């Protein structure tokens, strides 16, 4: 796919990686605008193409009492406001076929969750909206298998698909990133590394997913060196009290230093 096909994506001539970042879930308008404003300021300074990320609802939950959202239309309107306020593209994940057309009215990129990337009807529904489709690699899938997910998008008449690696299951309670998968998946299209979800520790007995945020920079550095086109990470100004995935999120205060380091690495890689 061509990044130029994503509306309002800036800094495309910087030769930097692009960034999909924001909170795991939309918890309210104030928090979404606050996070977006901070990330826009940082990415503008560092000339990083930026897409705001936020889930309008959370369907993959460990427990029935886990936070699922503030209401579909309310959250989607907030995503649209973020996009219009800062003139940036937005991305959200969908879980059911009917979500595709609904979310496509508000955001620029539709994301297929890793657990659902083999669901043909869902992938096709997203593709037929004409929006860019971000396909999360299943935790149970090989990098090579993702070519079939990409083909479903293209066979539906949509050339705008990208693949995001979010780690592979390593036992019952941990994830691991096999960086051999990055060059493999680059054969099939634009490739992104989901840094924060790759550090999840799922299936905890408490029913609350754990994580290793202390390893975020390690994984991100390795991704940039390996040649990913983009990075995905969830960030929040108060991860400890975030309503979803707080255990593996990056604190917003640490984002600028991290991205500055990663841009420096990217510049070095570009010279090789």
Quick take:
Its EC number is 2.5.1.55. Helix content is 34%, strand content 18%.
How does this model look, in words?
- By secondary structure, this protein is of the alpha/beta class.
- It has one domain (3-271): TIM Barrel.
- Helices cover 34% and strands 18% of the residues.
- The chain contains 8 helices and 13 strands.
- It has helices at 29-46, 72-86, 97-104, 120-127, 146-155, 181-186, 216-226, 255-271, and strands at 18-22, 50-53, 90-93, 109-112, 132-136, 161-165, 168-169, 175-176, 190-194, 200-201, 210-211, 230-236, 250-251.
- Strands 1-2-3-4-5-6-9-12 form an 8-stranded parallel barrel, surrounded by 6 helices.
- Helix 7 packs parallel to helix 8.
- The model has no long low-confidence stretch (mean pLDDT 95).
Overall mean confidence score, pLDDT: 95
Give me the strand/helix succession. Answer: EHEHEHEHEHEEEHEEEHEEH
Approximate shape: globular
Strand content: 15-25%
The tally of structural domains comes to 1
Enzyme class: transferase
Domain DAHP synthetase I/KDSA: 14-265
Pfam families: DAHP_synth_1
GO cellular component, one term: cytoplasm
Supply the key terms.
272 residues; alpha/beta; TIM Barrel; two-stranded antiparallel sheet; 13 strands; 34% helix; globular; Aldolase_TIM; DAHP1/KDSA
Secondary structure: elements and pairs:
Blueprint: E1 18-22, H1 29-46, E2 50-53, H2 72-86, E3 90-93, H3 97-104, E4 109-112, H4 120-127, E5 132-136, H5 146-155, E6 161-165, E7 168-169, E8 175-176, H6 181-186, E9 190-194, E10 200-201, E11 210-211, H7 216-226, E12 230-236, E13 250-251, H8 255-271
Parallel strand pairs: 1-2, 1-12, 2-3, 3-4, 4-5, 5-6, 6-9, 9-12, 12-13
Antiparallel strand pairs: 7-8, 10-11
Helix pairs in contact: 1-2, 1-8, 3-4, 4-5, 7-8
